[in-house]
Amino acid sequence: MIPASVGFQCPECVREGAATVRTVRHTSSGLRGAVARWGAVPLALIAANVAMFLGTAVSAGLAGSAPLDNYRSPVFTALAQVPLLVELGEPWRLLTAAFLHIGLVHLALNMLALLVFGSELERQLGRWRFLALYLVSALGGSTVIQLFGEPLRPVAGASTAIYGLLGALGVLMVVRRQDIRGILVLLAINVFISFLPGVSLLGHLGGLVTGAAVAGVLVLTRRRSTLQWAGLAGIAIVLLTLALTVPTAVVL
């Protein structure tokens, strides 16, 4: 007999009881857990950016350059934003440039910011509204570069969209009357960094203002999904019209 919590049990009963115990299986895989924690859209955007970086690195290697000098690749050259080339009939550069990065450090910093701020905003806005915010913010930064940037200077990076996320998060925090001192300090630091050589201040400010505007539209039209999407489409159309019809600024 085998001692039990109450009395004794025979060995056969114990074996039969053990056979009927079901093994608990974890139904959520590692990927599902990551999606639940960080959001599907931020992870998909990070995957797209990483894939683009790998593609430009391989392209650079095939072209005879070091893979980490990915900005020397033909793929990077064909997709980066060059205002004059956009004006001459290559509009895809307005968005494709937001998926390019110059080196691993540039990629890592932007993807970390996307993971942190993107996961929070997706929870607040939903997947599709967050994706629209990201893409329209990237377009806003590209439009400002197109209007006021150097015509022949290549520009690339997800920073335009990342600053849009910061602008949107700031608006949402103000609406909810949350403490915004932390995000203001973060914005001040990032704006300061934007003045460093090689960093696009125009793209950052354009993305920041556009993201704040998108969040404002979403807040003002909440509970009216049709108006929200109409407002987002209107902002995108205005930006595209400005970027594709206004001549590129001539910088002496």
UniProtKB/TrEMBL annotation:
Q: What is its main location?
A: membrane
Q: Report domain Peptidase S54 rhomboid positions.
A: 89-218
Task: Tell me yes or no: is Membrane among this UniProt entry's keywords.
Answer: yes
Q: Name one GO biological process term.
A: proteolysis
Any coiled-coil ranges, and where?
A: none
Q: Looking at the record's lineage, which domain of life comes first?
A: Bacteria
Which keywords does this Swiss-Prot/TrEMBL entry list?
A: Hydrolase, Membrane, Protease, Transmembrane, Transmembrane helix
Q: Name one GO cellular component term.
A: membrane
**How does the record say this protein sits in the membrane?**
Multi-pass membrane protein
Single GO term (MF)? serine-type endopeptidase activity
Q: Does the keyword Transmembrane helix apply?
A: yes
Segments spanning the bilayer are 40-63, 94-118, 130-149, 155-175, 182-199, 205-222, 229-250
Query: Which InterPro entries does UniProt cross-reference here?
Result: Peptidase_S54_rhomboid_dom, Rhomboid-like_sf, Rhomboid_protease_S54
Gene3D superfamilies xref list: Rhomboid-like
In which compartments does the protein localize?
Answer: Membrane
User: What's this protein's family per the entry?
Assistant: Belongs to the peptidase S54 family.
**What protein does this entry describe?**
Rhomboid family intramembrane serine protease
